[in-house]
Amino acid sequence: MCLGIPGRVVETFIEHDVMMGKVDFGGVFKQVCLNLTPDAEVGKYVIVHVGFALQVIDESEAEKVFEFLQHMDDLQELRAGEEDANVEGAP
């Protein structure tokens, strides 16, 4: 299943002539391409899928989605590459 995750833009910058941003996904920060959402700016929320912001949404909608995802425990994909302290035998 493909899933778009909401995140808050905390920084924008140009990299190789492409609008990029640092996006906060509830404490997990990722670089995201903002080229498809030219109205995305610091403080706004975007829906991100595979590293691309697809749509700007308002804060209340983003919070609803985050609450749902937390309830469903689907945020683990965002933490890929981080150590999972809850897994027995994890390094």
Number of helices: 1
What is the tally of beta strands? Answer: 5
How does the major sheet shape up?
5 strands, antiparallel
| The CATH top-level class label | Mainly Beta
The CATH architecture can be given as: Roll
Poorly predicted segments: none
CATH fold descriptor = SH3 type barrels
| Spatial strand order of the main sheet | 3-2-1-4-5
Query: Helix coverage percent of residues?
Result: 10-25%
When the domains are counted, the total is 1
The arrangement of helices and strands along the chain is: EEEEEH
User: Distance between the terminal alpha carbons, to the nearest Å?
Assistant: 29 Å
What is the radius of gyration computed over CA atoms, rounded to a whole number of angstroms?
14 Å
Pfam families: HupF_HypC
Organism: Novipirellula caenicola
InterPro entries: Hydgase_assmbl_chp_CS (IPR019812), Hydrogenase_HupF/HypC (IPR001109)
Protein name: Hydrogenase maturation factor HypC
Give a structural overview.
- This protein is α+β, with helices and mostly antiparallel strands and 91 residues long.
- The protein has a single domain, classed as SH3 type barrels, CATH 2.30.30.140.
- It is built from one helix and five strands.
- It has one helix at 59-72, and strands spanning 5-15, 18-25, 28-33, 45-49, 52-57.
- A five-stranded antiparallel sheet has the order 3-2-1-4-5, covered by helices on one side.
- It starts with a strand and ends in a 19-residue tail after the last helix.
- The model has no long low-confidence stretch (mean pLDDT 84).
